[in-house]
Amino acid sequence: MTDKYEQIKLENQLCFPLYVCAKEIVRLYRKPLENIGLTYTQYIVMMVLWEKETLTEGELGEALYLDSGTLTPLLKKLENEGLIKKERLKSNERKVQIILSEKGREMKEEAVKVPDVMDGCVGLCPEEGAQLKKLLEKIIDHMRELV
Known about the structure:
Elements: H1 15-34, H2 40-52, E1 54-56, H3 57-64, H4 68-80, E2 84-88, E3 96-100, H5 102-111, H6 114-118, H7 126-146
Antiparallel strand pairs: 1-3, 2-3
């Protein structure tokens, strides 16, 4: 006879190891990011801006799966640090454009060292890492369809 509570045992949950893994990776990022003055969430915002240079706040939120309640204070801090500039779009005053500042561009040179410091922290070979990334993206895509 199976235990009717089997499905709510922590050891049987997929979500729990995903949660712990994400939490521990962010914890490991803390030290190298401290050296450049960013939190992990600020770092991922900057990574998108280093790639795109200019985005609307909505586009940035969509790219990072962050709502405006999380993104707005992050952007305010980055703006106060002089890493980004915010401007209202002339074509639509309701939209705010996020622009990488010169100081933000310069930080990219320091940030390029972070992946080297983090290399190997998950303990997977490159093929396993690529496979895990693909599976996680599949999960994320599926979850986006549910919303």
